[in-house]
Amino acid sequence: MTATIHQLSSRRAPSLDPMVQLVAADLNGVNAVILERMQSEVALIPELAGHLIAGGGKRMRPMLTLACARLLDYQGGRHHKLAAAVEFIHTATLLHDDVVDGSGLRRGKRTANIIWGNPASVLVGDFLFSRSFELMVEDGSLKVLRILSRASAVIAEGEVDQLTAQRRVETSEDQYLSIISAKTAALFAAACRIAAVVAERDEPVEEALDAYGRNLGIAFQLVDDAIDYVSDAQTMGKGVGDDFRDGKVTLPVILAHARGDDADRLFWREAMEGRRISDEDLTQATALLERTGAIRDTMARARHYGQRAIDALGAFRGGKAKAALVEAVEFAISRAY
Amino acid sequence: MTATIHQLSSRRAPSLDPMVQLVAADLNGVNAVILERMQSEVALIPELAGHLIAGGGKRMRPMLTLACARLLDYQGGRHHKLAAAVEFIHTATLLHDDVVDGSGLRRGKRTANIIWGNPASVLVGDFLFSRSFELMVEDGSLKVLRILSRASAVIAEGEVDQLTAQRRVETSEDQYLSIISAKTAALFAAACRIAAVVAERDEPVEEALDAYGRNLGIAFQLVDDAIDYVSDAQTMGKGVGDDFRDGKVTLPVILAHARGDDADRLFWREAMEGRRISDEDLTQATALLERTGAIRDTMARARHYGQRAIDALGAFRGGKAKAALVEAVEFAISRAY
Question: How large is the ipTM?
């Protein structure tokens, strides 16, 4: 692992560009499906869905489906529809998440629930979710349907689990990992795994791509958690300390709480319960995270999962696709710095 | 049509009992699937889902699947899982509806969103929706998946459409029918149609059962709309005038508004905009509905669709199943009186 990471510093910063270039043509196909299939005679649906879908998302999950298909030398076009289905599921969960969290900003823009209200966000999410299953049915693979319906159920379970853990500073690292494995990593895993299904590869290939996506998803989320406390203006659309002020119990908080003394723990409890939301409180939180090494070790955990993602690709032969998938992991991890 | 209706008065009141008795054994099978598959390690999920699923619903939609399968002499057991999938979709939409409408009561009980909050209701709805697709995938019929994913998308479109029409007293009868065709009748139609798929019958049979369910669903909704203004304590868990006080533009209001004079129209506009919510306002509304024949003609419309539902069954041979399905329509229509 260390080698991989050290290697990075000796060349240009890792980026998503190789993956973007690798799948550019395919991604146009996916975007065409997305645009066409988010339409409805009910005008509010494309209006609201378009706000989020056109609104600066990286298309990370569909890109993973496309890049994994490329890794397997898949030559057909089935993955365009399926990658669009994955993006619809993702968009539906974002719409519902913002309602659940009462969020007002995403990617630097006002959220749909603020502009059109919670009811519209809930219902358009339901529409996109249903539409994603229609796309899968058109493709006709029961295996893909199984993978993505299972992933959707797991995501919802993870979200409810997180609701239960909300503001509970005693959440354990295990429980937190199980939550993010469900709510974030399951769709990354499914997005990668379905590429093996369309390319008609065997179970070990499916498993390998699933493991790549799952570990990348966990790494991604952990880095996001760290970024919330260390990012500056460069990082996209998210203010420093949002998680802190919302009382979100993420891994940095779990580690700092577990490693802290009684005074620290009281501070974190009060903070997660919403009684510590000033700028001074955030400064103190950052100091505690620094003193306990919580951010440093959240990043170490992220690198652990990132390395597992990279190693899951071990059996695949080298080439542009593999290099792009590896660099996507390195990019995910490098974002905090 | 008149004959059918007149016939009723000469015997016992129509009831759902024949259908309930017809499918009793199968319904136990469906309930077993429902109970087993609403479980999750995340305890809040079965707790919340159970509140609504065990909470006195009639299981109307799964019963329709079972009764239609019986009409076709289907001998297998696939329909238990699929009827459970239909009930999960229905339950998911109820959970989201109550969030969207901010409802506090359903079937005389406090709603899940009041007890556990909107976030939990949204997410458990998502879980049940995903789980319904998992059940369909286990069954393995792409045709059933197509029918129910399409129905789910149509339901969501209908709900968004209704949101757009909210409190708009100028909503036309056509637009209103298109809304309830989507949000209510589509799932009734799908519940019936999938019975033809599991029984491996041809397209005309599918179409006939679809037409039965669709027309029954429309009749059901129109009678519900009328009941809101005329029911007494007998009718289940719903207070008189709820729709009125919520500003819901239903067919009685559309007819009374269209047939009224300028003063009437002003009254309805104010009422639908939430500026007429007193008991005196409700009394005045009832008087206007009476004077314009709006309730009487909403019921006439309901009987029209009910008769079409019955006639859709014309080609099927008589017997207990057909009699039960016909009486279910008569029951639906008789509820208001």
Answer: 0.91
